[in-house]
Amino acid sequence: xxxxxxxxxxxxxTVAASSAHASDLTGSWLGSQKCTYTNxxxxxxxxxxxxxxxxxxxxxxxxxxxGGLFQVIYNGxxxxxxxxxxxxxxxxxxxxxxxxxxxxxxxxxSTRDDxxxxxxxVVSAMSAPFTYSCKYRLERISxxxxxxxxxxxx
Length: 154
Description:
Blueprint: H1 2-20, E1 27-38, E2 43-57, E3 60-66, E4 73-77, E5 80-81, E6 84-88, E7 91-94, E8 102-111, E9 117-127, E10 130-142
Antiparallel strand pairs: 1-2, 1-10, 2-3, 3-4, 4-7, 5-6, 6-8, 7-8, 8-9, 9-10
């Protein structure tokens, strides 16, 4: 009887741990980045595999982008749907010190109780004379918190 109790307790704890991140974006997300950019002349294309790592604490979102065109740290806001706690519309912004560039991203994300999730979005950037627009398609591959700290953006 004790073995059954321990097995049930272990199952409950496993489900609780995996569903803890169903209500936030924390974890690693892997996918594709497809960009078009111009230098005021003709458009160029760029495609890459990208990993985005999210650390979320309540309404504070810190994200690192690895691979692809923008390898930066973003600050953001998760914008969770109050009626559907597994749906998000995160907004990301990158701040630099000399204000010569700006990067902003708008995404849609959904998470699942098993820790999985999907995200898509667009990141736009300006760095005179270049303009960029990149489309993202990502899937969550881990719910472990990567410990990304913010950059101090407002």
